[in-house]
Amino acid sequence: MLSYRHAFHAGNHADVLKHSVLMLVLDYITQKDKPFLYVDTHSGAGMYDLHNGWADKNREYETGIGRIWQQPSQNWPEGMQTYLRAIRDLNSDGDLREYPGSPWLAQFMLREQDKARLFELHRNEYQNLNALFSRYKQIHTEERDGFQALSAVLPPVERRAVILIDPSYEVKADYQNVVQAVKTAHKKFATGVYLIWYPVVNRKWATKLERDFTDSGMRNILLAELAIRADAEEAGMTASGMIVINPPWQLADSLKVVLPFLQKELAEEGGGFRLEQLVAE
Ligand SMILES: C[S@@+](CC[C@H](N)C(=O)[O-])C[C@H]1O[C@@H](n2cnc3c(N)ncnc32)[C@H](O)[C@@H]1O
Q1: Which structural domain range is residue 186 located in?
Q2: Nearest atom within ligand 1 for CA of residue 9
Q3: With 80 as the cut, is the pLDDT of residue 1 above it?
């Protein structure tokens, strides 16, 4: 029984990091005219109403996207311009009412020649996702286990793909499932850009995940992590990160500017960031 609802967390610091990296990657991928496939294994609902329902309970967005989106755009790093312009387009009257999920952000970047495959297992979330994209011919949604579906859609006919794997980690098995799913997918399609999000709720679990990727045999792996606070024993997410396999070559340089900006705007005393090439090309 799945109980996680992304709406509680929409627009928080982890979403800002995840979606900044995603949009940077999509920016680089769309510099070439050749088509690509976007795959989102854990899509969520696709769009979140910040003023009603779950998002309004803890208002996590206030200490995430809420701190950044209305700053003058000259303050934003070059590498965050596309992402933040998308948020402004959505909330054009100046009131932050809606926050997009990863599928909507990807859709914002798709061109005529590109396609998307979106997977979501939770019935209600899936219904919202499907309703959001039902009129888009290029976008195909499925109520299905994203870990299992991933290998079935690879290798893509487009021969280029950006794959976001964003589990909720509400079950601890997700830490193993994510590594296994990526290894299997990578065997079928070694040149895809794989983006794997992870939380730091317990540093030991995050370190184990990182080690599993480092030891996986896959090459060219970059890690970008943003800590809002120092690691702590108490419950709660202190940091989150993205593991990127086959990152576009410009990504690390852009993140050298984006991560310090996010630390300055979002982190408390004791926070920080990491940007590390875990495995060389
Ligand atoms: C962190 S949320 C996704 C957020 C979304 N990627 C975004 O950035 O806007 C994780 C989602 O995965 C769904 N989920 C959990 N297990 C799944 C599975 N095995 N396959 C597909 N979806 C799953 C949950 O219902 C939840 O909506």
Answers
A1: 6-279
A2: 1
A3: no
